[in-house]
Every structure is written in C-alpha cells, then in structure tokens.
Design a protein that fits this description.
heterodimer; A: mainly beta; six-stranded mixed beta sheet; five-stranded antiparallel beta sheet; B: seven-stranded mixed beta sheet; about 0% helix
C-alpha cells in the first residue's frame, strides 16, 4: 500500500527566498504524482501533475520533479511571495489504482 | 471547464441525526468520483470512490455510505452521525491520466 510522507510539516521563509518542499513515497510503481495547494478552509487547488514517464513539470515559478527510483518528489518555488503562504500537499497514484494517497502536507509561511 | 458543486459549505448537526452531502460535477463525463475527509491534524482520508453509476468502493468501514445515482452526482450519507464524523468533506473527480480536481468542501461539525 502506497504511503506518502512530507517533511517538514511547517516551514517559514522570508519573502524572495527560493525553497524546496519534499515528498517521499513507498511504492516506486507510481502512475503519477500531483502537487496541490490548500488555503485555510478551502478545497485543494491542483498545481502540477507529473506522469510516471516524466521527470519534471514547470508552471510559472513552480517546478516539480519526480524520481521514482528513490521514491521522491520535490516542489521548487522560486522567489517566494506572501501569497504563496498555504499548505502544500502531494499525492501519489499507484499503477492500476483509482486512488490518490496524500501526504499530510507542509504548511508554508512566507514572511514579508 | 469542469466544475464541482458541493453544498452546503458548512453544516452543524446533532449526534444521531442523518446526513446527506451532495456533489455534482459539470463540464466532464464518465469521471471517477471520490469522497475524502480531512480531520484536524490528520491527512486526507479516502472514504469512497466510484468509477460509474451505481458502483461504489468503500475504503474505510464506518458510519457513512455513498451512492452515485447519476453520472455526475455523488452523495455521501449517514443514518446517525457520530462525533467522530466531524471534519472537512471534499468531493473530487479524476479521469484517467488527468489531474484530480477538487470541490470547495463542506465543513461538518457534529455536536
């Protein structure tokens, strides 16, 4: 059964800093991995989806990578802004599975 | 573009009362539909998923049930709520190879 871990649970950085959020998963037979953003009291907003055949995806200041052999994914945020403050969740979908397994998230605070 | 409608946004219910949360989707057809629960201090827990009308898979044995009477409608129900049913309930859709898309959720407080 797929297990997803996100470390650290919380992160505080000054505005303008580049940062990396980490996600690890136990089953390397992963179909895809997705990064989400969640603002307090809100639903999840999809940021990036990486298929198993891909190594990275980019959208604006965000870059997500996937390394199946090591069971790791990272979300890189460039030039962080206070508006980036939110909880970031990663979720893996196993091959042949209909399910997304989520990590518990990293709560990011960007200090002006 | 696809849209998920969830209502109500917030709900306060007494212990032992029934529950019905509805999720409807627009802008897509034949999606896989999901109910997740997010409790304080815990991650997202998959409760039910459906790959088609009348097809329900339960991931966690509990006080809840789900139904999919139409392709774009997914309903979460309970006959008698427990305090432990409190949480943030999220409906999601996913099509093969595509990103999962979530609704805005229902905050349920059982008192």
């Amino acid at each position: 059964k797929q297990e997803v871990t996100q470390i650290p649970a919380a992160l505080s950085v000054p505005e303008g800093e580049n940062l990396v959020l980490n996600c690890s998963f136990t089953d390397s037979a992963i179909y895809n991995l997705q990064w989400f953003r969640q603002d307090p009291g809100k639903g999840l907003t999809s940021l990036l989806l990486i298929q198993s055949s891909q190594r990275e995806q980019t959208s604006g200041r965000l870059n997500a990578s996937l390394d199946k052999s090591s069971g790791r994914s990272t979300l890189y945020i460039a030039a962080s802004q206070p508006g980036d403050s939110a909880t970031y969740l990663c979720a893996g979908r196993g091959a042949g599975s209909y399910q997304l397994t989520f990590g518990k998230g990293t709560k990011l605070s960007v200090i002006p | 573009s696809q849209t998920i409608h969830q209502w109500p946004a917030t709900l306060v219910q007494p212990v032992g009362s029934p529950l019905s949360l509805e999720c409807t989707v627009e802008g897509t057809s034949n999606p896989n539909l999901y109910w997740y629960r997010q409790a304080a201090g815990r991650g997202l827990q998959l409760l039910f998923y459906s790959v088609g009308i009348g097809q329900i898979s339960s991931e966690v044995p509990q006080n809840l049930s789900a139904s999919r009477p139409q392709d774009r409608q997914f309903i979460l129900s309970s006959k008698k709520l427990l305090l432990s049913d409190s949480g943030f309930y999220l409906c999601a859709l996913m099509r093969s190879g595509e990103a999962a898309f979530f609704g805005q959720g229902t905050r349920l407080t059982v008192v």
